[in-house]
Amino acid sequence: MTILLRNALIKDKFSKHFNKRRDILIENGKIVRIATSIDHTAEKVVDAKGLCVSPGWVDIFVSGNDPGFEFKDDLISTARSAAHGGFTHVFLTPNTQPVVQNKTSVEYIVGRDTGFPVCFHPIGAVTRNTDGKELTDMYEMKQSGAIAFGDGNKPVQSAGLLIKALQYVKAFNGTVVQLADDPSVSPSGLMNEGNVSTQIGLPGKPALSEEITIRRDIALSEYAESNLHITGISLASSVEIIRQAKKSNTRISCSVPLHNLMFTEEELLSGYNPLFKLSPPLRSATDRSALIEGIMDGTIDIVTTHHTAQHNDVKMCEFEYAAHGALGLEAAFGILNELKIDVDNILNCICYNPRKVFGLECILEEGAEADITLFTEDFSYEFTSAMNQSKSKNSPYLGRTLKGKIIGTILNKEMNKINLHV
Q: What residues in the chain have per-residue pLDDT under 50?
């Protein structure tokens, strides 16, 4: 297939065409020409007002439900959500049934063809059955296509096991992805511990559970001289700990969940809405401001949606018994735009930095494979349930006015695949 993108603003800071409007001709999944004007007959022409293009976006922490929990989401519905959100690469956590912990389970995900322009990258489990007791064969999974290693929504609590994992992956320059939480600290906590939790009478989860995990894991990374990515950053104190650590440790990186940038604990003052039962929990307005500042100054490398599909039966019930998690893939760009984060910083967090940290190269130049997100910055719209592509409905962003429309995605893997919703 031949695709012609007309008058597109190229938002790729590594391209010689950065911040210039150009026509882009794509043939059989490759960028064959970039010029001020291209006179060529193409099967598909995209000429949208305010069209911008960048390398395809990346979400590095999305709950894997397939196999075992396909009633929440399967690979097809997850791919549809990702494509409509502008993502061409999605990292799936290993918390499936069975757990992604060997060659066979990795190949099951890597080998699936969803029919959408989305590439799935499995995160292989660090410990067998993610139970924190015995290491998996991470090298075998790396050879089969695992992008990184971690126990997903179950942080590795044993310092001894984690340091062995860090030493293990160092042999092939791998990365361990660790959730910033010690669940043994106040395991019954339902929300951020503070004035709001006291006011509404819910047991709180203290900042300490996140802070001690980050401090410990940074120290282990330094000792092992190995790559560590910390996800689930939600506190001002966590941002400062990482900011100081990065002055001497270049092997650590971190990501913040989308919901911690958008909401605060005060959402629960109007009622015990289970849509706001999230992990990490919503924190204070001060924490939220510090997270946004951390994005602006580069302390926080990546924004991830922590997209977690949950069936209504376990989500829309009493707050105490409701499952954690929220959808976020479709709304991510619109939310970040509404937060008034400039587009270059947004792209740092959902495009350049995740690609750099996890080794996914891409550049918008002639001869390169087509791996592109098409979007516009200025289009405002209401995010409605009709836009939700997941099998589940647990999105806290429904009904909100968002800014920035995803026009489409183009990704060439083995064959050319296109999803241009214009």
A: 414-416, 422
